[in-house]
């Protein structure tokens, strides 16, 4: 996790929010029933959620640049040249789109929906308790970063398992 965090740690203006961001990512990946300021603070040894609230609401860091760094990490680690970018969430194609094209979009949409469900269940995507848009956006950015890290680790482990299976044949 520390290596992943190091990829965007420079986006935080001071050491305290940089450290809290790593704690926040760890809390998002922790096996907690609810992932809110109190439970995640307790998970990383903080008595109160003040530092988590400061990270999301007031600390100086560039959430857009963190998002871009996480995207670059995803492309580098689990991206595919033939991947599909879905810009239209309606699931409908333009007039004249063939059934084969619509099936491909529907399959891709299923994968997107599945990813959001995983993010909700495992990374606290829907466990935010914020009042301001910027705090929400920062939470979502870090939750998606946690999901990206988790997905990359799983892909790496699956590739190792496939190599071991293939190597034994």
Mean pLDDT: 80
Number of domains: 1
Based on helices, strands and strand pairing, what is the structural class? Answer: mainly alpha
Main pleated sheet: none
Q: Ranges with pLDDT <50 over ≥5 residues?
A: 85-90
Shape: globular
Strand content: under 5%
What is the count of β-strands? 0
Rg over C-alpha atoms, rounded to the nearest angstrom: 18 Å
Total helices: the number is 7
Order of helices and strands: HHHHHHH
The percent of residues in helical segments reads 55-70%
Distance between the termini: 33 Å
Can you give keywords for this protein?
169 residues; mainly alpha; 66% helix
Write structural notes for this entry.
The protein is mostly helical and 169 residues long. The protein has one domain (2-82, 128-168). Helix content is 66%, strand content 0%. It has seven helices and no strands. It has helices spanning 2-6, 15-29, 37-43, 50-57, 63-78, 99-123, 133-168. Helix 2 (15-29) crosses helix 7 (133-168), helix 4 crosses helix 7 (133-168) and helix 5 (63-78) runs parallel beside helix 7. The longest helix has 36 residues, at 133-168. The relative contact order is 0.14. Residues 85-90 have low confidence and may be disordered.
């Amino acid at each position: 996790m520390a290596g992943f965090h190091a990829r965007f740690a420079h986006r935080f203006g001071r050491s305290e929010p940089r450290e809290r961001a790593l704690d926040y990512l760890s809390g998002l990946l922790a096996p907690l029933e609810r992932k809110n300021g109190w439970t995640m603070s307790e998970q990383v040894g903080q008595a109160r959620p003040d530092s988590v609230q400061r990270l999301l609401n007031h600390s100086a860091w560039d959430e857009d640049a963190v998002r871009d760094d996480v995207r670059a990490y995803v492309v580098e680690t689990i991206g595919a040249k033939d991947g599909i970018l879905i810009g239209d969430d309606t699931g409908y194609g333009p007039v004249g789109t063939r059934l084969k094209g619509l099936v491909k979009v529907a399959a891709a949409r299923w994968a997107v929906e599945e990813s959001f469900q995983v993010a909700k269940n495992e990374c606290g995507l829907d466990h935010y308790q914020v009042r301001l848009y910027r705090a929400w956006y920062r939470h979502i950015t870090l939750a998606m970063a946690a999901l990206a890290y988790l997905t990359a680790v799983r892909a790496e482990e699956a590739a190792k398992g496939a190599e071991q299976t293939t190597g034994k044949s």
